[in-house]
Write a structure and sequence with these properties.
Blueprint: H1 2-20, E1 25-28, E2 38-43, E3 52-59, E4 68-76, H2 88-103, E5 108-111, E6 117-126, H3 133-158, H4 164-171
Antiparallel strand pairs: 1-2, 2-3, 3-4, 4-6, 5-6
Helix pairs in contact: 2-3, 2-4, 3-4
């Protein structure tokens, strides 16, 4: 219970920072999502003017690693039908994502258990190294750079406008 309270306090602090940085954010109580308190907030719209949201949580680590805090930032890409991830697009998307992840210095693209296309970034900190507003702002800026660089290519492959091979050639230009 004390551990849960610590995570709630961390998420409340992150929510404060986000509000100070002028993000529209909200704390999600632990009962509402995976039993872990988290924060959801709107990030910049993509180049097609679609809303995007980021979900951040402090993921509990196993016994013996309590000295660390693992902050997970997760963005569900604003396109794609989970019912379609599983046909031809699945093969091409998986190929593209595995190769793009080798080119992406921060974060990683994937398909979650709900068959949604995602971008995930994990920040590992020690218990004495606190998340500050400046660190959070820098982290979000770097995260958005990685997300924005590749989202359109992923969508083009998802929509079968280009192949994974074509997208990769474009990514390394």
């Amino acid at each position: 219970m004390q551990e849960l309270k610590k995570y709630e306090t961390l998420m409340q602090k992150i929510n404060e920072y986000l509000k100070e940085l002028e993000y529209d954010s909200e704390v999600i109580e632990s009962e509402d999502y995976l039993g872990i308190p988290s924060v959801i907030f709107g990030i910049e719209k993509d180049d097609k003017n679609r809303d995007r949201y980021c979900h951040v949580m402090c993921v509990p680590l196993t016994e013996g690693l309590e000295y660390y805090r693992m902050y997970q930032f997760l963005v569900i890409l604003p396109f794609g039908d989970p019912k379609k991830i599983g046909d031809h697009a699945d093969e091409q998307i998986n190929l593209l994502l595995s190769k793009l992840n080798n080119l992406t210095p921060l974060g990683h693209f994937g398909v979650n258990d709900a068959a949604q296309l995602t971008y995930r970034y994990v920040y590992l900190a020690t218990d004495v190294e606190h998340m500050t507003q400046d660190k959070l702002e820098d982290l979000l800026e770097m995260m958005m750079l990685s997300l924005n660089i590749h989202q359109d290519l992923i969508e083009s492959v998802y929509k079968k406008e280009i192949t994974a091979t074509q997208a990769l050639k474009e990514a390394v230009k």
